[in-house]
Amino acid sequence: MSNPTRLGQLDLNLLTLFDALLREQSVTRAAEAVGVTQSAVSHALNRLRDFFDDPLFVKAPEGMVPTRKAEALKPAVVDIVAAIRQRILSEAAFDPATSHRIFTLCMTDMGELVFLPPLLNQFRALAPRCRVRTLQVPSEQIEGLLSSGEADLALGSIRTAPEGLYRQRLFMHLLVTIVSARNRQVGEQLTLQQFEQMPHVAVSLAGRPGDAYDSALEEQGIKRTIFLATPHFLTVPLLLEQQPDLIATVPLELANVFQRYGTVRVVQPPVELAPYALNQHWHPRFHHDPAVVWIRELVKKTFEGYPDHAARKGEAQLRQDVRR
Fold it and tell me: Which of 66, 106, 268, 288 keeps 20 to 30 A from 168, CA to CA?
């Protein structure tokens, strides 16, 4: 039988900080995630240690590592904190103008470069006290992050997203090929033979060619040589600048950003590639959470300027640029 006096020593704030320490494994980052001072987290950790009669977290080179008891408590703590967010806090109204909430978004470095700036403009206007954090993780970890509440949304073209997640289309991507501005082998047109023989840089969050964002090329029977698979979009123009014989196929919006810096130029792939969807994903546990409802509606509204017709417009512009 539980001891009511002992239960009263464990308030919800302690569990919230316990959850943050489990996720962040750092007093500093846990304080930032919850919106309190580092001393408040340290004080809470001392109370938790007294309550459980265990160090719970010990210093290690990789951060504050949970002890065996903390690992054993983790599923219960995560479930309790998630239940509080879903069943109790979800009943409270969310006011973006006054909230100090931290929103966590899973996205690639491409998302940070192309899509995060317009979203932050909306945040600063509508939710000036809120903060935004981004995570770049392999797709197989996304469901767990959304389920635990560590992340609010996942944005991107997640080809292997779990079926249990909610999904909403934001807009359609076009894929184009970029070559170094110093590349003299490729003219205004890229032949299929050139495309198959030239060494490619493929972007994959898992770093594996088979999981690449441009894997639609293989689905069309194209046999290309992938020289490098990388999880980072932003390294691609630098690699092409240093190795002018390399080529890459990337989303049009990103290619336009790269092209503005003068290191690459955009050409059409030798075969027509169907546009693919950029979506936002969230977990059913937080479907009715007012803050999550607000952020996903904001994301949807922000990218109303990138609908399907924008993809067609971008394709027409690309063809015009190639003819020049």
Answer: 268
Span 268-287, pLDDT tens digits:
888 888 787 888 999 998 88
Q: Encoding tokens for residue 183?
A: 């590349």
User: Cα(80)–Cα(35) distance, rounded to whole angstroms?
Assistant: 19
**Per the structure block, which two tokens stand in for 140?**
């197989």
**CB-based contact 292:150 (threshold 8 Å):** no
Query: Please, are residues 176 and 255 in contact by the beta-carbon 8 Å criterion?
Result: yes
Largest Cα separation within the chain, whole Å, is 80
Q: Tokens for 203?
A: 């972007």
Question: If pLDDT is split at 50, 70 and 90, which confidence band does 160 have?
Answer: low
The listed CATH number (1.20.80.10, 2.170.120.12, 1.10.10.10, 3.40.50.410) that belongs to domain 4-91 = 1.10.10.10
> Beta strand 225-230 with 199-203: parallel, antiparallel or unpaired?
parallel
Residue range 46-99, pLDDT digits in tens: 999 999 999 999 999 888 999 999 999 999 988 888 777 766 665 567 899 998
pTM of the model: 0.67
Place of tokens 């088979």: 210
CB 78 within 8 A of CB 19: yes
- CA geometry: angle 210, 212, 214, nearest 5 deg: 115
Q: How far apart are CA 222 and CA 224, in angstroms?
A: 6
In the predicted model, is pLDDT for residue 257 greater than 60? yes
What radius of gyration do the chain's Cα atoms show?
Answer: 23
Separation between Cα atoms, residue 257 and residue 275, nearest integer Å = 18
